[in-house]
Design brief:
The complex is a heterodimer of chains A (about 100) and B (about 220).
Chain A lengths: L2 E6 L1 H9 L3 E4 L3 H9 L6 E7 H4 L3 H6 L7 E5 L8 H14 L7
Parallel strand pairs in A: 1-2, 1-3, 3-4
Chain B lengths: L9 H63 L2 H7 L6 E11 L2 E11 L15 H96 L1
Antiparallel strand pairs in B: 1-2
The chains are: A alpha/beta (about 100), B mainly alpha (about 220).
């Protein structure tokens, strides 16, 4: 059985704790990096990370990109969405097709 | 197109013809794979986009409710209320094969009573917190579905890129090269064959000329 984790600042992740997800309340990108790179990360099927943090630890996220688990998924933090998640969808289309044919 | 560096022999020709056949077959198969993957990928990615937009909207609402809840409670009591979760979520990962891309399927199970997800007594917390936790619990299913979709899309886009490169390499490099080399060897062999025939004809002419000369000499000697 795998677990589900949420990485983000305290205000953004505290709600998820109530639902029974594992939360990593971090205050700076280095701590998020450490979580993503730690061997424990492999015990998680899904790791949600706030876009604000994800923007600053792309390298660590890249580590997990080609593996089936954990799936590192961006979610908007408490300060709102930066649009990185949506633009990643477009980027994937661009990579597969050669140009973004969904029109954005 | 560059011709391969091989000796123009019959053996080489048979070998190359076999390779050409394999390449053409591989090209056709890979092209079919690419087309089917592309079709499924585009379907998936359209759904993915819609789902992401809805999840982000709902999450922002949940965050908003948490801000409201935090405003009506002290920081400590809020943290305390959320500290010990009532339910735990665990995920089982199965593997689904889409055109030889192994994508994960997340089956999640929540333990605990799903009708009562609030991990706190109602006495010391505000109603806003109930709202906040409820709205977050509401997006959880969609959030998990999103994770599965995004991972699948990611893995598929990698595979499509790889397949596309292979198809193009076969179509624009390997197959033309082989064809060019086969043509070269065929021509070379034909040229050798023609050279051989002319040489034989020449030798035959020389032999006939010799015979005629010998016959004439014999006639002269008799005369």
């Amino acid at each position: 059985m795998y677990k589900i984790g949420v990485i983000g600042d305290r205000e953004s992740v505290q709600g998820f704790a109530a639902l029974g997800l594992t939360t990593f309340a971090v205050s700076n990108p280095e701590e998020a990096n450490a979580v993503l790179k730690s061997p424990e990360a492999l015990e998680y099927a899904v790791l949600y990370i706030t876009e604000q943090l994800a923007a600053q630890c792309e390298q660590a996220i890249e580590l997990h990109r080609q593996n089936r688990t954990p799936a590192v998924i961006l979610i908007p933090g408490k300060d709102g969405s930066l649009g990185i998640g949506l633009s990643n969808v477009g980027k994937r289309v661009e990579k597969a097709v050669g140009s973004n044919i969904l029109g954005d | 197109m560059a011709r391969l560096n091989v000796n123009p022999t019959r053996q080489e020709l048979t070998r190359l013809k076999k390779r050409l056949k394999t390449s053409q077959r591989g090209h056709k198969l890979l092209k079919d794979k690419r087309d089917e993957l592309m079709k499924q990928f585009l379907d998936l990615v359209r759904k993915n986009r819609a789902l992401r937009e809805s999840v982000e909207r709902k999450l922002m609402q949940a965050h908003g409710s948490f801000v409201l809840a935090a405003a009506s409670m002290s920081d400590e009591s809020l943290a305390e209320a959320l500290m010990c979760p009532r339910q735990t979520v665990a995920v089982d990962v199965e593997v689904k094969n889409i055109m030889s891309v192994n994508v994960p399927v997340f089956q999640f199970t929540t333990s605990g009573d799903s009708s009562d997800i609030y991990p706190y007594g109602f006495g010391f917390t505000s109603g806003e917190l109930d709202n906040a936790v409820w709205s977050l619990g509401d997006v959880l299913t969609e959030l998990l579905e999103l994770a599965q979709m995004e991972k699948s899309a990611e893995l598929m886009s990698d595979e499509i890129e790889k397949t596309r490169r292979r198809v193009n390499a076969l179509e624009y490099a390997t197959i033309p090269n082989l064809q060019e080399t086969i043509r070269y060897i065929t021509m070379k062999l034909e040229e050798n064959e023609r050279g051989n025939t002319t040489r034989l004809m020449k030798v035959k002419d020389m032999m006939i000329a010799e015979k005629i000369e010998a016959a004439e000499k014999a006639k002269e000697a008799r005369a």
